[in-house]
Write a structure and sequence with these properties.
The protein has helices spanning about 5-20, 30-45, 50-55, 60-65, 65-84. By secondary structure, the chain is mainly α.
């Protein structure tokens, strides 16, 4: 899977800022710095996609679709932050 388009990155960046404002959790950095973080995280995800896939044991690796694997990753990361 390729990195997000510039339009998708912009939409993600804008949504994150909106969501942060809605929770009254002000972001401690500039919009430019936040955008750089979005770009870097997207590149990191793309660079490490193969390692993530390899880390999933069989039969899940072969049975789950890429979208299902990504969804499972979101669930795990969300839960890790909820319980910490």
């Amino acid at each position: 899977m390729a990195v997000l388009s510039d339009a998708d990155r912009f939409a993600l960046w804008a949504q994150f800022m909106s969501d942060s404002g809605a929770t009254r959790d002000p972001l401690p950095l500039s919009k430019v710095d936040l955008r750089a973080a979005v770009n870097a995280i997207d590149v990191w995800v793309d660079t490490n996609a193969a390692a993530f896939n390899t880390a999933i044991p069989q039969p899940a690796r072969g049975a789950l679709t890429a979208k299902q694997k990504a969804s499972l990753l979101l669930y795990v990361v969300k839960r890790r932050w909820e319980v910490s």
